[in-house]
């Protein structure tokens, strides 16, 4: 999942330079929608759509508005202005925001190891993004591209947290499929209204590399990775699933350097190693937390069993004393 999303940045950079942004985003998610709907049909889950109520559809609409529609617009507009490797580093903001908001809204348990791990991962990513000068990322030192990337981060965090609520009643594949389909419709309507039909006509003349990138984004970075991510949010929780996004910038930088020949400097390597160290600490903290919870649960069950065994004994003793 992290590798596929890391690759989405160089793919997106190629698309942003060759295609109208809204039309390209629409095409990406239309391709992904077809793939996900076929997946649903193969797994026999299309029938489950009949059981979704208005509350579930509203939740899916909200996830689409943030995670598909809003994110895609910020994503491609930013990649018109910012190199793919640098742009991918904004993903490092996601785990911190998710950690804070998931703890406040969903009361997800977070221990010191997990918190420190996220801080290390994000610090490493920001160090790489700023080429060793984090102060260059402060307000007033960044341009429109950086602000658009911040919009990406805010949309993604909203998508993750809303998705956590949606997944209490909707399975991961259905949620990913319907969110993608709704998002594709919203993007298509916006593209026709803003860019016009001429934008879609121009797609025919786009270079083959851009078309390959659209297919890769639609099938790999969207259909497959989104379904995996939603499953991870449900299984691991929003904080733990979101923490793995810290690896996305590392893949983004490496793949951008490999495919687009973007510069790879020591700060990118050092920041990447720091991010990986943070991820390892995050995983250790999560294992420690689960181990502690399992111990508490086992102790509670043991105490309950002891109480059940003690009650018949006390009742028998009382009968002997009363002679009944």
Automatic annotation (TrEMBL):
Keywords: Membrane, Transmembrane, Transmembrane helix. It is found in: Membrane. InterPro entries: AA-Vitamin_Transporters (IPR050638), EamA_dom (IPR000620), EmrE-like (IPR037185). It is a multi-pass membrane protein. Residues 2-127, 144-283 form the EamA domain. GO terms for cellular component: membrane. Gene3D superfamilies: 1.10.3730.20. This is DMT family transporter. It comes from Steinernema glaseri.
